[in-house]
Amino acid sequence: MNEEKDILILAIESSCDETAAAVVRNGREVLSNIIYSQIDLHTLYGGVVPEIASRKHIEKINQVIEKALAEAGVSLQDIDAVGVTYGPGLVGALLVGVAEAKAIAYAAGKPLVGVHHIEGHIAANFIEHRELEPPFLCLVVSGGHTHLVRVRDYGQFDILGRTRDDAAGEAFDKVARAIGLGYPGGPKIDKVAKEGNPDAIQFPRAHVEDAPYDFSFSGVKSAVLNYINGCHMKGESFSQADVAASFQKAVTDVLVGNAMHAVEEFGVDKFAIAGGVAANSALRQAMARACEERGVTFYYPSPIYCTDNAAMIGVAAYYEYRNGTRHGWDLNAVPNLKLGER
Ligand code: KG4
Ligand code: ZN
């Protein structure tokens, strides 16, 4: 093993509101992971403004890449390939990363490897769990996606279920706004919920008929909005903490329920979570318990690798690179890229 040459990937991520670059060695070791978060900028507007995101990416991307190389102590010549998220995401935001990656790879004479953003989220689990290898099941829960995925091998996926409406993170963000917590809602609900009673209010747990692995979060979101409106109409106040905790419990119950159904059905012994919502403390606890009860090993990334970052893209790009994936100079941003497409 040690005689093999190290493979260094420079990775770039700009699909939403984080401008990020990282250097990853051999798909598992993060040499640098630089993230410029635009959250403060978008907080003013209560959500991500695509035009502002693209402009900020342009402003920051060179700086972030230079820092990633410097912190890793490598130059462009040491890099074996440039990996970049080319979808899904905001088209203008993705374009900045893709154009940058193409320019760097072309100028330095390095191969270009386009990466699916969700493949990156899943791959985040490989960073801190060196022993983790496919096959396993992974629940990807982020601001834009809710997917239950069977990871058959590196870069090979079956989507077992997905959301029919809102993504889990989107529901967190909308409910947080409704109860006055502001943007981004996930971390704020997580924090406030710790002071609340998760059984105070019974919000619905939606199941999609004949699709046991699909999700629907628009019902629970509406139920929270109705509950708040009802309180306003009656001139009553409501407990922000109880609403946050009860909403979080309703979402968590469904995520755990569907995931464990799949774990049992497919007889796997490894289960992972990924994406921004995977940073949620209640979800991590509930999943850990459910996995333990079933004798299944539970994997989850540190919060910094749950939310958008380029290290996870570097890991995914490494396995794609090893599988022979190379993209041409005509690589474009694909805002609705499907998982498994190349
Ligand atoms: O993966 P990510 O950074 O971006 C996308 O690919 O969408 O996920 C962002 C989402 C946001 O909706 C945010 O509110 C949610 O992840 N999130 C959380 C937590 N931290 C971030 N949701 C619940 N609890 C958290 N602790
Ligand atoms: Zn993401």
From N to C, what is the helix and strand string? EEEHHEHEHHEEEHHHHEHEHH
- How many individual helices? 12
Top-tier CATH class of the largest domain: Alpha Beta
Strand content: 15-25%
Q: Give me the Rg, rounded.
A: 20 Å
Q: Strands across the major sheet, in which order?
A: 3-2-1-4-5
Largest sheet composition: 5 strands, mixed
Strands, total number: 10
CATH superfamily of the largest domain: ATPase, nucleotide binding domain
What is the overall shape? globular
Secondary-structure-derived class: alpha/beta
Helix content range of the residues, please?
Answer: 40-55%
Using the coordinates shown, work out and report the CATH topology of the largest domain.
Answer: Nucleotidyltransferase, domain 5
Attached small molecules:
5'-O-[(R)-(carboxyoxy)(hydroxy)phosphoryl]adenosine, zinc ion
The CATH architecture of the largest domain would be 2-Layer Sandwich
Question: What low-confidence regions span 5 or more consecutive residues with pLDDT below 50?
Answer: none
Q: How many domain modules?
A: 2
Descriptive labels:
Nucleotidyltransferase, domain 5; about 350 residues; single chain; binds zinc ion; 5-stranded mixed sheet; binds 5'-O-[(R)-(carboxyoxy)(hydroxy)phosphoryl]adenosine; alpha/beta
What does this structure look like?
There is one protein chain. The protein is an alpha/beta fold and 342 residues long. It has two domains: 8-124 and 309-322, Nucleotidyltransferase, domain 5; 135-300, ATPase, nucleotide binding domain (Nucleotidyltransferase, domain 5, 2-Layer Sandwich). The protein is built from twelve helices and ten strands. A five-stranded mixed beta sheet has the order 3-2-1-4-5, with helices on both faces. Helix 10 links the parallel strand 9 and strand 10 (297-299). Helix 6 (168-178) packs across helix 7 (185-193) and helix 7 packs across helix 9 (240-266). The two termini are 29 Å apart.
